[in-house]
Amino acid sequence: MKSDLYKYIPPFWDGFSAEIGNDEANYLDLMKKAKKLAEMARKGGYNTQYAFLLDMSVKSNKNRFFIVNLKTMKVEKSSLVAQGRGRERLNLDKEYSNVPGSNCSSLGIYKVGKSYNGSFGLSYRLHGLESSNSKALQRYIVLHAMGTIPDVETNFPIWQSEGCPSVSPKMLDRVGNMIDKSGKPILMWMYDETFIPMI
């Protein structure tokens, strides 16, 4: 690990409080979901070669964004990905919402849409395909990069977004190239099997 990453301190972190979450993704669960996406892609006219799966039960400083080859059922690349901060300036727990202005990430399956240049540069629109993420377009929930997100796992919570799944610039280059070259939309599934919503 590069020495400069040890100096990485996320905003408002006290240096002691632990982030809630798993240290790694459940591989069997990941593959089970990948198979569901492969079937959905085949029936729905989506890209049947690749899909993106985001296991948000994993801590933000561990790899939880996965590029899965739907033909071989193998993970071809994994990386960090930011979550929405919700009502906190830095949320060390998990909070999800589909409500505009909540600053939360929304769980569910998305269709990755066209690119555009926004306030974070190159970004990809996300179309929520479930009731849990149906307002993604309205909320401007998009896939984009943030320069503050490291390319490797760290010992600290990473920067958070206002709801967008945000990756490092290098990771966006990779997934963006895949999205741009794909003749059909790519599916993305953001999930958290450990989350218990407060009613």
* Multimeric state: single chain
Low-confidence stretches: 1-7
Number-wise, the strands total 8
CATH architecture: Beta Barrel
- Summarize the main sheet: 8 strands, mixed
Strand content: 15-25%
- Looking across the biggest beta sheet, what order are the strands in? 3-2-1-8-4-5-6-7
| Cα shape | globular
* Distinct helical segment count: 2
Q: In CATH, what is the class?
A: Mainly Beta
Distance between the termini: 42 Å
Name the CATH homologous superfamily.
L,D-transpeptidase catalytic domain-like
In percent, how helical is the residue content?
10-25%
Order of helices and strands: HEEEEEEEHE
Task: Describe the protein.
InterPro entries: YkuD_2 (IPR032676). This is Peptidase. With 199 residues, the protein is of the alpha+beta class. Helix content is 16%, strand content 24%. The longest helix has 18 residues. The protein is globular, with a radius of gyration of 16 Å. The chain starts with 26 loop residues before the first helix and ends in an 8-residue tail after the last strand. The N terminus is likely disordered.
